[in-house]
Design brief:
Layout lengths: L1 H11 L4 H7 L4 H9 L6 H11 L3 H5 L2 E3 L3 E3 L24 H7 L7 E5 L4 E5 H16 L8
Antiparallel strand pairs: 1-2, 3-4
Helix pairs in contact: 2-3
Length: about 150
């Protein structure tokens, strides 16, 4: 798990083993042993690696895999990949339980569907509506009423 993540992250970021070793103040040989799985870093060095790669310590130490894709690199801190969903005949999808739990989503919640050229995003309607009221207040200089 850790060794695969170290290799993926280093290559994705375009670093050599030597460059990463310098960043966390160890020898290239020590880092190479971590990538090969011969040894593992102590918690302090692992935390430094997570910082260098902008990932959480937890995501550095475990693997995420998605069916049909395989092992994914650790997501940047604050970002998540929850897995894949199937789109139903009428456009329905089921949000994976860990994602629902993380964001406190439950049946009947309203979500705003937003997009760009790449994909879609789901936002809690209340959050989106509050941000829009704040924006309109800034724009007009007048407080915006809440919808009933």
């Amino acid at each position: 798990m850790l060794k695969e993540n170290l290799v993926m992250l280093r290559k994705m970021n375009g670093y050599s083993q030597e460059q990463i070793a310098e960043k966390i103040d160890i020898s290239r040989q020590a880092y190479a042993k971590w990538e090969s799985g011969a040894t593992v870093p102590d918690i302090e060095k692992a935390a430094r690696l997570a910082q260098v790669y902008h990932v959480t310590l937890d995501s550095l130490l475990k693997n995420e895999s998605v069916e049909g894709i395989g092992i994914l690199p650790p997501a940047p801190q604050g970002k998540n990949i929850w897995g894949s969903v199937l789109l139903g005949d009428r456009g329905q999808l089921v949000i994976p339980k860990p994602a629902r739990d993380k964001f406190g989503l439950k049946a009947g919640d309203r979500l705003i569907v937003a997009s760009d050229e790449i994909g879609i995003a789901l936002l809690p309607a209340e959050f989106f509506e509050n941000k829009m009221r704040e924006f309109m207040t800034l724009l007009t200089g007048k407080p915006q009423p809440e919808d009933e």
